[in-house]
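The aim of this short unit is practical: by the end, you should be able to scan a pair of folded records and say something sensible about each. We start with the first protein, listed as its amino acid sequence and then its structure tokens.
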Amino acid sequence: MAELSLADEPVTATSPFEGPSTNFFGGAHRAKQLEDLRHLSRWSRRLLAVTGERGVGKSSLYRALSARLDPGVKAARINANLTSDTREVLNALLQGFGIASPANANPQLLAQLITVHAEEQCEARRHCLVLVDDAHLLDLRALEQLLHLVDATSEDALRVVFFAESYFITALDKATKRMSTARAWHEIRLLPFTEEDTRGYLAFRAQEAGGGQRPPFTIANLKLIYELSSGLPGRINEVAAAIQRGEIGVRDRDRWLPPMHRALALVLLTVLLGVWLVWSGYQTAPEPEVAGAEESPTAAQALTLPAEIGTLAAG
């Protein structure tokens, strides 16, 4: 940590951490994951899913892969945030692969044009690759259509990489099981940065903005950024920018919680509130009245009556 020569105060008026990075950070095993994705021959499956929680860096890896494909790969790119249903997905593939199609063609014809093109590229020793960002937003039918395209082509003709949040795996598993022939897939799970990776990432962003290799934060601020961001690159950017704008300081540590901690605190608060309401209602409820209680003799009276009767009889 000494080699960072950390400053006591931020050195830039405009934070270099605002907005996405224009370069790719290769730390935290990201460089190896990118290389594995670039080389199709290393793929054990034709379907890959790059998953992780929101802000972990899936879209960054998607952009890096899209810009660094081998010359022998022809790629079609889909942003499921903008394109999600079956026809839109097929049209995006046609456009990405540069395939002309008749106007108002039905989905079956569009799919056939794509499979024919993929086979032609395979014969020419080129590979077709489909990259889908925000794949968790795909309609189930659109997802199944992509799987049908993979099944309809030869082994090396067409491959698909999905970049999605972790719950997408459930939909992918469901869709593959509904196929006539079960299709295996492989998952690459992106993990949050460690504290050391976080420091390296901040130094990378500072250098990218022309500020040298030293992130403009104190050691205490670096630790605060890691704690509040939970090691998620997207969140790291937000917290670092907020610190540089003076919106967050070390004294605010206890008032800022990571998203998971805030969710757990909210759940706990809700449970405690429910318990208090139930207990309060129980305490204020009126005691039930027993009908005829005033007319009934007490247990002591019931026991003494026979004794008095016996005395009179003896006299």
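Turning to the second protein, read its sequence before its tokens, just as you did above.
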Amino acid sequence: MRFAAPAGATPLDPDEMGGLKFGHITTRAELDALEHANITEGLRWLARRRRGDILNDAFIRTLHKRLFGGVWDWAGTYRRREKNIGVAPYQISMQLHMLLGDAHLWAKDRTFEPLEAGARFHHRLVQIHPFPNGNGRHARIAADIYLSDHFDHAPIEWASGFDLQADNARREAYLAALRAADAGDIDPLLEFVAGNGGAARQTFSVTSAIEMSPSPARRTGPNYETAKQKAHHG
């Protein structure tokens, strides 16, 4: 089974597709609704959490599992195959350990302004691409947790009213900024986040996080069980 993905998305191989927990899913729209509802539930868990540091390897994996584990059985598990993006699988743990250490020092020493630290953290996490899928959404949420917990800073308004999971000008600008950062030019990504990052203090919230990846499900606000039922009967 294959689902059409937006430009820049990581394709899943047949074995990874076999990890889909709902065999009745036949369209990208059904899959998007399920994933969005799962992410919403994961964000509610995140808002209730009392412990866990985003700069901890175990929490990075737990966050991914909470966001996607209701849909994919490999959620929270580092990928084992090469992709068209990301480091080699055997390097994931080492590269992630280095990133988390760097991000800790950025926060401790205030090496960068908060938005720049968040942008650099996000880019490196996407560049590593730890998981088979969901890396962009996971890394955007992770960057906002980093900003909130370590800089007492508002989340970035990544989507700015657009759906970053669909092909549009906003997604194109986002991907272009990431590609520039891959080539060593961080400025486009800094401009992307600076133009949409809140300057006032704002507690990380479910509502603000959901705004990062709007979808058709967002407009109706289904919970995870409702989305499963709609996908099953649609």
